[in-house]
Each structure stands twice: as structure tokens, then as C-alpha cells.
Specification:
It is built from 23 helices and no strands. It has 471 residues and is an all-alpha fold. It folds into two domains: 202 residues, no CATH class; 253 residues, no CATH class. The longest helix is centred in the middle third of the chain and has 35 residues. It is globular.
């Protein structure tokens, strides 16, 4: 979480130093495209590795098989990007930068291998090694960004001619991508210990089994990216050229204000997947999953409310350019996106049933349903509401996935979720947040919403009843 938080600190840097809001829109759109490429590049083999590693006494062979597959597909992706750079970037809408195609192909190929290396460290329960490499990756990215985006303009202003090229306003977007490229390439040698398992070779039979399990996860991942990032791409293509990238920039910047909640959900996802798989064979696994879900719900409710209360301070702190606040809609979408992230976190918990039971095709169906809603909602609402339409669509898609995952999951792999505690806690968090946002007379008392929520959770847990029952 510390590493991800440090990455989020780049948002104030970008919003302050990029010449125009539209420049941040370009960054957001390219990273949105990259998110789809990342899912394709990984082939779902990270989750596949966890599934098959727990079923064998030789997880190194599983790692090696997945690793060789990713090396082959990564090299093919880099070669394709090299040969067809201009047509690719013309299709994406940035033909003036064909070099981006090769840069991002290298980033995606390297990151897919790194993700497998990180999966090995997680499966082997080496959290400190995981944290060290992860923080180094993030540190290189942040250091390169500071060098290119902050220091080079300063040195150029001090008369250092070599820094003038890197400090040009039109170069700033490219500098951000170069920083990511450097971080991705540097990470691979740091995972050399994990990649030493490649000597185990490629098991074709095992690879076929892994792909049968993992490819539905690619569908899940692509559908997830439609829900998470495709709205930026659609905003670019569905809005007029004069305003499209400005709206993407504003939307993307205010999306980052869900910082604390997003960090927690991402960190939980990193830790939960290997934990869920490790408990899959335990007869009390359903009770364990239910317990995790209950306390996860309490925490996301707290973070939802804490973020809303701190928005007047958090907004100007993270978004350093007044141009972003010229559009009042920016701040208004933050509560909607926060609620969407709450639903996303709940879905990660609920998705445990199809992963541990091997029924990944059901996960693909749910994800495709959510993606379909995202596409329909965005195509209908963006021309009418702009990025506000994207925010409402995101919330609707994630909420529908939560409902579908719960209903189907209870039939296929029943888990005794305590809805009598989870739902009241979430309703209380949303009600407190609504009161803070819509009742001006409560603004001076907004800070009391968080203690009120915590008191409510305490009452929901009713500790005195347990004490009474024990006595």
C-alpha cells in the first residue's frame, strides 16, 4: 500500500507540470489502452499459476511453463509493435507518436513476466522480498518522473542546454511513458531468483491445462478493464475533438481522489487471492471467506466516508492546477466513483467461489455482463452527460456484478455471508455520506460522520451480546 500511495503522489506532479489538462487526458487514454494490453499479455497465467501450484509438489515446473509461454508471446508482441508501429498508433488516435507502440509493447511484455515473478514470491510466502522489489519498481518510476518532469525543466531554466530537449512542454507526456518503460525493464533482473525456475522447462501438457483454466480469466480481465478504464477511451472518441481530451483529463484526475479506497482494494486483492487459494481445501473455508467479507465491508465503508469528509482538503492537495476545478462536475463524480470502488471490492470477495472451484467460465460470464452494461451505458450517456455519464455507468456495472456474483455463487459454492451485518454497515456509510454532501447545515459537523459510522459498526457487532452468551 505504501508503494501504491507513492505512485499516487505522481498525480499532483502531473496536474501541476503538464501544460494543459488535455495532456493529462493523453496520458490517461494511453494507460487505458495499456490496461487492455496488460491483460492480453499476461494470458491469465498469474491466477493459473496459483491454481495449479497448489495442486502439485513442484510449483517451480508450473512457474517455468507459464514463464516460457509469456516470454514467447512477449517477444511476438514487441516484434509486431516494431513492424506496425504507425498503423497501430494511427488506430489509437496518436499517429504523431509511432514510438509509443514499441515502448508500450516492451512495458507490457516486461510487466507480464514481472507479475508472474511477483506471483511466485506471493505463493512462496516471501512478503518482504515482494515488497522490496515492488518498492524498487515504484521508486525507479517515481525517480524517473521527478527527473524528467520536475528537474529537467528546472535545469533548463538555469541554462543547462542538455536539459532543454527533455523540458519541452510537448515532450512531457513522452517523459512519463519513458519513466514507466525504465521502471518495467529494471524490475526484471530484480526477480532473477524467481526466474531461475525457468530451467525446469516447458511442459506442453501442463500448459494446455493452464490455458484452459486461464484463458477465461483473460475474458474476465478484459471485461474488467472495460469497466475500469474503457470510459476514458470512449470519452476521447464520443466527444468533440475540442473538448474530448480535456474531459478525459478532468475525469481521470478526480477519479484519483478515491485514492485511499482504491489503495485498500488493490492491496486486498494482492493479498486475498493467494490466501483464498491456500484455504480452498479447508472444510471451514466458507466460514473464513464470510468472516473476511464482513470486516472488508466495514473497512471500505469507513474509507468511503473518510474520503468524502476529507474532499475539501484532499482535492486541492492532489490536483494542483486550478484549470481542473473550472468544471464543477469534477468534484461531483467523486462520491459516485467511490461507491463504484466499494462495489468493486465487494465483487473481488464474491468472486472467490468461481476461482477456487475452477469454474472460471462463470466469472467470464459475469464480467462480460458487466462490460456489456458499461458499453451500453457509456454509449448512451457520454453524448448526453459527458464524464458524469461514465461515472454513473461504472457504478451501475459494478453493482450489477456484485448482485450476479452473489446469487450464482450461493448456488454453486455457498458461503454464509452475514448480510444482516454487512448491509446495515454499508447503508449507514452511504447515508452518512449523503448527509454530508447534501445538507449544508451539517458541513461544519462533517468530521463527526466517521465516528458516527464507527459507533454504528460497533452496535452492529453488538459485543455485549457475545459477552452475555459466554456468561
Amino acid at each position: 500500500m505504501v508503494g501504491r500511495f507513492l505512485n499516487f503522489l505522481l498525480v499532483p506532479l502531473y496536474t501541476a507540470k503538464l501544460a494543459m489538462v488535455g495532456d493529462y487526458g493523453v496520458v490517461s487514454v494511453m494507460f487505458a489502452y495499456a490496461s487492455f494490453g496488460a491483460v492480453l499479455a499476461a494470458l491469465g497465467l498469474e491466477t493459473g499459476f496459483f491454481h495449479f501450484a497448489r495442486k502439485t509438489e513442484n510449483p517451480a515446473r508450473v512457474f517455468a511453463t507459464a514463464g516460457h509461454a509469456l516470454i514467447i508471446t512477449g517477444l511476438l508482441a514487441v516484434l509486431t509493435a516494431k513492424l506496425f508501429a504507425l498503423p497501430i498508433m494511427d488506430l489509437l488516435g496518436y499517429p504523431e507518436h509511432p514510438e509509443y507502440a514499441l515502448w508500450f509493447a516492451i512495458i507490457l511484455a516486461a510487466d507480464a513476466l514481472s507479475a508472474l515473478g511477483f506471483a511466485w514470491l506471493r505463493q512462496q510466502e516471501k512478503p518482504w522480498a515482494f515488497a522490496a522489489v515492488r518498492l524498487t519498481n515504484i521508486g525507479v518510476n517515481i525517480g524517473a518522473n521527478l527527473f524528467f518532469v520536475l528537474l529537467c525543466p528546472y535545469w533548463a531554466s538555469q541554462g543547462h542546454e542538455w536539459a532543454v530537449y527533455w523540458a519541452r512542454p510537448e515532450q512531457m507526456v513522452s517523459n512519463i511513458f519513458l519513466s514507466n518503460l525504465l521502471a518495467s525493464v529494471v524490475t526484471l533482473p530484480l526477480l532473477a531468483g524467481a526466474f531461475s525456475n525457468l530451467r525446469e522447462g516447458l511442459d506442453r501438457g501442463l500448459l494446455n491445462d493452464m490455458l484452459r483454466y486461464s484463458l477465461p480469466m483473460v475474458v474476465v480481465g478484459l471485461a474488467g478493464m472495460v469497466n475500469e478504464t474503457f470510459d476514458r477511451i470512449l470519452l476521447k472518441h464520443l466527444l468533440p475533438n475540442g473538448s474530448a481530451e480535456y474531459e478525459v483529463g478532468v475525469y481521470s484526475a478526480f477519479y484519483k481522489l478515491s485514492l485511499l479506497l482504491t489503495l485498500f482494494v488493490q492491496a486486498f486483492r494482492f493479498a486475498a487471492e493467494p490466501f483464498f487459494f491456500s484455504r480452498a481445501g479447508d472444510e471451514k473455508a466458507p466460514e473464513t471467506y464470510a468472516y473476511v467479507m464482513r470486516w472488508f465491508s466495514y473497512v471500505v465503508g469507513f474509507l468511503f466516508l473518510a474520503t468524502l469528509v476529507s474532499l475539501p482538503f484532499l482535492g486541492p492537495l492532489l490536483i494542483r492546477n486550478p484549470q481542473y476545478f473550472a468544471d464543477n462536475r469534477g468534484m461531483s463524480v467523486v462520491p459516485i466513483l467511490l461507491a463504484a470502488n466499494v462495489c468493486l471490492g465487494l465483487y473481488y470477495n464474491l468472486s472467490v467461489w468461481y476461482k477456487v472451484s475452477g469454474k472460471t467460465q462463470w466469472g467470464a460470464i459475469i464480467a462480460l455482463g458487466g462490460a456489456s452494461l458499461t458499453l451500453v451505458g457509456n454509449f448512451y450517456l457520454i453524448p448526453r452527460l459527458g464524464f458524469e455519464g461514465s461515472a454513473w455507468t461504472t457504478l451501475g456495472a459494478y453493482a450489477s456484478m456484485v448482485i450476479a456474483a452473489y446469487i450464482w455463487g450461493q448456488k454453486a459454492y455457498p458461503i454464509p455471508y452475514e448480510l444482516g451485518k454487512i448491509l446495515p454497515a454499508l447503508i449507514l456509510a452511504f447515508a452518512c455520506g449523503y448527509a454530508v454532501l447534501t445538507m449544508p447545515e451539517l458541513q461544519s459537523l462533517a468530521w463527526m460522520a466517521v465516528p458516527a459510522y464507527l459507533m454504528g459498526v460497533w452496535l452492529i457487532e453488538r459485543p455485549w451480546k457475545r459477552i452475555k452468551s459466554k456468561s
